[in-house]
């Protein structure tokens, strides 16, 4: 790996996150320093309770750190208020969750286009081309009219990935994306995530506790007890 | 199982708040009704016997002249008789108008038949002496020794009295000769007769004579019945409120149990039997019902006593007394509250136990629970609507109120059954339009609102009931009002008329009248004093410019040549001879009322009668919102000074309009209670949905929905629910009003056009919309407060 001009998708400095206070305080993150290069597939690994999910939530602007600084896509997150963070997520980030988290009343196609709709963006020719590309790569073209309840777990997760990719985000965060899938579907989903990095040039950050999943990643960061191990 | 039950009650109490509120309101409504009716009964019945204490017999069903003959006979034979009768009269004290429409009643000269209690001065001893009720003249500056004019009879205030018998009281009391002189046609309720002649009274045909005790007993029973009728009317509204409560509570339970389906399944997994689960949730409902009903008793008692206290302090002479809480009513209210809760919980609890133990092991998919409308339900709904519609059609052709009520209830039930199909369809239409205008939040809201059709329908049903009834009442009253308005325009075309008696009005009077506060338009009418055959001396006025002050278009505004319009009470023959000085005309008589003691002719006719017309009358149209009493008082002072008389139609008009306004206001306020419960229901459904959709909302926030947009989504959902229910309810309500107009009113009067009070209908929609928005405030705040990360880790 050459060290010359690797651009950073995200970085964190001295990141801490404390839940509760006093005797009951839980130190989920105890001072994390982390750089995530862009255009790569990074896995954040750790046991359950290690703080890896909290780290991802903080990096993704879903949760605010207690102290420390986070820079994502060149922007400092700690200075943003809730609305600014929301708009930032809308513009720059994509998400894939363990439990799929598709809206049950929308069809797969509608779920995929939801980020654009929330941002009030018109589905123009470019967006439509991107949508077709993503849908094609993920192989869900024939399931777009179905509601989540009518899809298998693997299909639901592919829809969720498509939703994360459709707005061409700077980073896609995936939180245990294979946690609810059988090994075949899991391999398929991980394959798609890797393809999105290789073929679509996306940056993907995945939180997982499975070594087999981490094996698909370019880089692996291990978190233990709220610190980078 | 007891541990589970107790823990469940502890955990879910907050979610039951709105269901409890619905029960509390319904139960409190019943208790307040019982207290108010008991207070009214106590007040009315108290002292009923007082006026008859000294009497031997009581004569009823007589008119003023017949009563006068009974009094004459009593005097002639040395017996005594007191007439209990009333007449509404203008009362002036020291030349100042103190009451435009005072209840004037009689007072006996014989102390044994006199029942008023002296507070100041003395009782009247002869005609010309007047006493006033101390409460009725409170703040009106009336004192012993003041000169008083009651109608046309002048006298002196010799005392102030208290009225211990509310059902027989008046504001001013005259001796019988004065009372009979003021108004020979006064309303006579009864004559109390004491003396040996009582046994051999010669009665006019149709009159009834009863021994005193029998009469008093019967009167008390009548008053109690009247109050009972009122109480039953109030209970109808209480029943509506309770019905709406049932819908709200049933919906609450369905949602709660849907959310807890996994808990129930888990319980079943670990060995709870179906019966145990069922019993546990039913006991939970019972606990809720008992607690809420008890709270309702407390709230109702407090509210009832507060209202009675307010009424008593506002109207000291009024017909209220402190009530005695009746155990039967309280028991009934308590039982009703508990039953309503249990009935409302019955169906949802049945559904919960069908949950299979395996459901607990499936991944969380409670949010994708969809309930639709069963085919049976749709068929039943269509049948009910069709049957109801044919009953309604029958009621129109046969003028049959029974068929109308049955048809209304049946078709409305049909609409409620069709709700899960009808309401989501309407929401899709409205939401589609809204989505185009308001963007993503509105579109999401529309999709959220229809995802569970049965829940949506149940939520809107409660509001639908209230709005349908409110709209029907508003439209019905507005339509009957237009008929009343026509009558008013015919009988009271001129608000206020100052008419000269013996000499023309001063030249500056018109200007001074126009300067009075509350005068909208005023015109002076030219005329001359004329001798009209059969009617004596009357001013004859030329009809000119009358349209600018008259209500409607009365005939006398434009008399034909050769016609004369006379007040109905002097118009006798078909033709009269009118003489002004040397001139004489024979004119055809038309009669009407509402413009004072004057005749009206065409300008050309007047020109033929006199060469030098002068101002003999000033007619006034009051400004909108003018205070009728003040205006009449001011104009009365002006006309007294000018030696003229004031004819006051505004008083009657204001009185009738006020009665209608009070009726409308009361009915709408009573139905408002049902609407309030329904809106609590909407807030409740939203609040519970927010809990259920915590994960989804967090996801939307993660994907870039701002807090404001999330709040907007929930607000839009509430707005959609309330507006769709309101609009649907308005349409059904207007239809019902139209049917009842044809079925009931058209049987009585020739034509009853449907009048839509657009302003009021719009107000109903706006109020429901705003209230819907308000009901979304708390759930939306709660939803927006959760951070995306916290929401996503919910499980």
UniProtKB/TrEMBL annotation, chain A:
Domain of life the protein comes from: Bacteria
InterPro entries the record matches: AAA+_ATPase, ABC_transporter-like_ATP-bd, ABC_transporter-like_CS, ABC_transpr_LolD-like, MacB-like_ATP-bd, P-loop_NTPase
GO function terms (MF aspect): ATP binding; ATP hydrolysis activity; transmembrane transporter activity
UniProtKB keywords: ATP-binding, Nucleotide-binding, Transport
GO CC annotations, alphabetized: membrane protein complex; plasma membrane
Keyword flag ATP-binding: yes
One family name in Pfam for this protein: ABC_tran
Transmembrane regions: none
SMART domains (UniProt xref): AAA
Domain ABC transporter: 10-229
PANTHER family to which the protein is assigned, alphabetical: ABC TRANSPORTER RELATED, IMPORT ATP-BINDING PROTEIN
Protein name: ATP-binding cassette domain-containing protein
TrEMBL record, chain B:
Main localization, broad class: membrane
InterPro entries given in the database record: ABC3_permease_C, MacB_PCD, Membrane_comp_ABC_pdt
Keywords noted in UniProt: Cell membrane, Membrane, Transmembrane, Transmembrane helix
Membrane-traversing stretches: 16-36, 229-258, 285-309, 329-347, 378-398, 404-427, 457-478, 667-691, 712-738, 758-778
NADP as UniProt keyword: no
GO cellular component, one term: plasma membrane
Subcellular location: Cell membrane
Domain (ABC3 transporter permease C-terminal): residue spans on this chain: 236-357, 670-788
Membrane topology: Multi-pass membrane protein
Keyword Cell division recorded: no
MacB-like periplasmic core domain residues: 19-179
UniProt similarity note: Belongs to the ABC-4 integral membrane protein family.
Protein's UniProt name: FtsX-like permease family protein
